[in-house]
């Protein structure tokens, strides 16, 4: 499958789970590492990779990773100098080999996952991301049951408190009536 349009449409037709696995393959992770990260079995990872390979005409895993990186690379064009101060802007980007290298020209290419890791995120976003990962993990069912049970308990406790407050107000109003 040499046609770029066919390859792009094949990648666009993947499910979110397949794209998630493919992104981690493109980051150089093994099937075992991906399985641990996504809380799924290694065979599920390999099945998703195999489906992608079949859609791309049996292309090897390394070629698929390279294609995915190429299709999902963000190119930022940065002016070579700051128009306000006249000082030049020097950017460094981390390559896939882990070494820092200065970009050539005024373009920097990074993948979305690299951008996310370089930018960082807000602590609350990390908490919700970790919670979402836990809910999809192997013990996710029990976590959801505990959350539901706790929520129901809080709802019942809130209703009981409100009823107690209403009863207290009613008693207070009756004591003023004489």
Count of the separate structural domains: 3
| CATH C-level category of the largest domain | Mainly Alpha
Ranges with pLDDT <50 over ≥5 residues?
Answer: 86-107
Overall pLDDT, averaged?
75
- Tell me the CATH superfamily of the largest domain: Winged helix-like DNA-binding domain superfamily/Winged helix DNA-binding domain
Order of helices and strands: HHHHHEEEEHHH
Number of helices: 8
CATH architect. name of the largest domain: Orthogonal Bundle
What general outline do the C-alpha atoms trace? elongated
Number of strands: 4
The CATH topology name of the largest domain reads: Arc Repressor Mutant, subunit A
- Oligomeric description of these chains: single chain
Strand content: 5-15%
Q: Which value, in Å, is the CA radius of gyration?
A: 26 Å
User: How far apart are the first and last residues' alpha carbons, in Å?
Assistant: 91 Å
Main sheet makeup: 2 strands, antiparallel
Task: Please provide a written account of the structure.
Helices cover 63% and strands 7% of the residues. With 178 residues, it is mainly α. The longest helix has 38 residues, at 140-177. The protein is elongated.
Short description:
The chain is mainly alpha-helical.
Features:
7% strand, single chain, 3 domains, two-stranded antiparallel sheet, 63% helix, 178 residues, two-stranded antiparallel ribbon, Arc Repressor Mutant, subunit A
Topology, element by element:
Blueprint: H1 4-12, H2 16-26, H3 31-38, H4 42-55, H5 61-71, E1 74-77, E2 93-94, E3 100-101, E4 107-110, H6 112-119, H7 123-136, H8 140-177
Antiparallel strand pairs: 1-4, 2-3
Helix pairs in contact: 2-4, 2-5, 3-4, 7-8
């Amino acid at each position: 499958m040499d046609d770029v349009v066919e390859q792009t449409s094949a990648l666009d037709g993947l499910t979110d789970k397949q794209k998630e696995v493919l992104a981690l393959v493109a980051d150089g992770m093994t099937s075992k590492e991906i399985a641990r990260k996504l809380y799924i079995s290694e065979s599920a990872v390999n099945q998703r990779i195999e489906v992608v390979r079949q859609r791309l005409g049996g292309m090897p895993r390394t070629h698929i990773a390279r294609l995915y990186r190429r299709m999902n690379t963000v190119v930022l064009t940065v002016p070579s100098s700051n128009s306000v101060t006249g000082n030049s802007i020097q950017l460094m980007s981390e390559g896939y080999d882990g070494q820092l290298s200065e970009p050539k020209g005024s373009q920097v290419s990074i993948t979305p996952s690299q951008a996310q890791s370089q930018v960082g995120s807000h602590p609350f976003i990390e908490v919700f991301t970790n919670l979402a990962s836990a809910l999809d993990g192997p013990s996710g069912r029990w976590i959801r049951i505990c959350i539901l049970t706790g929520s129901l308990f809080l709802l019942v406790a809130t209703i009981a408190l409100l009823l107690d407050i209403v009863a207290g107000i009613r008693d207070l109003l009756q004591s003023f009536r004489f």
